[in-house]
Amino acid sequence: MILGIIGIIVSLLLLITLAYRGVPVILAAPISAVVCLVFSGAPILASYTEVFMPAMAGFVGSWFPIFLVGAIFGILMTVTGYAESIARSVTGWIGSRSAIAATVITSALMTYGGISLFVVAFVMYPLARELFRVADIPRRLIPGTIALGIFTFTMTALPGSPQVQNIIPGQFFDTGAYAGPGVGILGGTLIFGLGLLWLEHRRRSLITKGEHFESPESKKVIGGSADDGSSVTTALSPPNRLVPFLPLLTVFVVNFACTLVIFPALDWSYLQEDTFGGITYDSRAGLWAVMVAILVAIALIVAMNFGQWSTLKVGFSDGVKRSMLPIFSTASEVGYGAVVASVAAFAVVRDSVFGMGANALVTSVVTTSITAGLTGSSSGGMTIALNALGGDLRAMAEAEGMSLEMMHRLTAMAAGGLDTLPHSGAVVTLLIVCGLTHRQSYKDIGMVTLVIPVLVVAALIALVSAVGGF
């Protein structure tokens, strides 16, 4: 049993190392799973085909629609010129002198509007670079500024976010995307405010030390092509500055309407039939609402630009390509988690987690945070943790009288903390997009996406424990 526990630890360290070294997670996860199996003495081939692959396929089956429509929506917002127009409009309203705030708010608006996180990063960098150049702000702060807008409060804290990190807990706790609105808004506001304070402090500090904007551009030109070979070019121009905001507003309105008005008024009793596996409406409501919202927004974009169908068709094709790597990378991590959970030593780890004497909320937050940190993925880490412990956590919460909506919100926020350790694929990608290194920019990324969110979640747990919730 001790050897098995050592194997789990070694496999996790190997996964982190391989990811940090740039090995694709699709390969790193099964390799690390094999190491775990070797130490535990479990059969490798059977575990791969009967444990790893079904878990991986299950994640793809559940979440591929969201990854697909999200990627297509993001690319269509790019090729129509809507994303760039939104960024320039927000910048004009806020002012170029407030380059940091303008970049954070624009990035956050796009993320909360349903555009894929990675697409936002690609779109925002050239715009942020120009803002920082005009304001003479050191370029090393660009990654941290974009990261605050896309990897934190709009991804996990704000209720109604269409990002997958906000939808996953609903599958386990039967909650919706708007779960825990009070604590989510408070937490999101704190992360946003403290993150801005840090970035402005760093701007003043660096300028005092004599640093200025310098831009020896990376040879990896971003905005012309993606790593998967798909092209992203702005081919169209929106007719005015308000039109580009309509698709984002559509995602919000339709998501809100489906979650709180339309879906609750429908009869979902047929879901109990064997054809649908006896699922419950509550476990799927968040997923369906977001999917419908993004599809309606895509239809709106097509309707407003139907005369440019050839360009839109390229956007659909690129969106499909862009959805593949993220979904399969995350699914591969989920497969790895299933293998770890299948070995006998994991039962000891699980019992230790539940034996630490903490309540359901703390247990959920701690396990999700640690798993997200080890895998370098918020969605992958949260899925691994909840797949292994979700049923027990829900039963514990119900026994303790803990609000499942509170569990949803704080568990989602916990996933968005340690997931941005240096080996995180999202961090590595963002730095590549910006043409900067960990040494130049990770200090600020780590502060706004890791240190501040973790401290805020800890403070919210203490507050919830003291006042009993929101």
Question: Could you please describe the fold and organization of this structure?
Answer:
The protein is mostly helical and about 475 residues long. It has one domain. About 75% of the residues lie in helices and about 0% in strands. It contains 19 helices and no strands. The protein has helices spanning about 1-20, 25-40, 45-80, 80-95, 100-110, 115-135, 140-150, 155, 165-175, 180-210, 245-260, 280-305, 310-340, 345-355, 360-375, 380-400, 405-415, 425-435, 440-465. The longest helix is centred in the N-terminal third of the chain and has 36 residues, at about 45-80. The protein is globular, with a radius of gyration of 22 Å.
Main features:
19 helices, 470 residues, mainly alpha
Q: Main β-sheet, in a few words? A: none
In percent, how helical is the residue content?
over 70%
Approximate shape: globular
Number of E-state strands? 0
What is the mean pLDDT? 85
Proportion of strand residues: under 5%
- Which structural category do the helix and sheet elements fall into? mainly alpha
Question: How many domain units?
Answer: 1
- Count of helical stretches: 19
Radius of gyration: 22 Å
Instruction: State the end-to-end distance.
Output: 43 Å
GO cellular component, one term: plasma membrane
Organism: Nesterenkonia xinjiangensis
Transmembrane segments: 29-48, 55-79, 99-128, 140-158, 178-199, 245-266, 286-306, 327-349, 410-433, 445-467
Keywords: Membrane, Transmembrane, Transmembrane helix
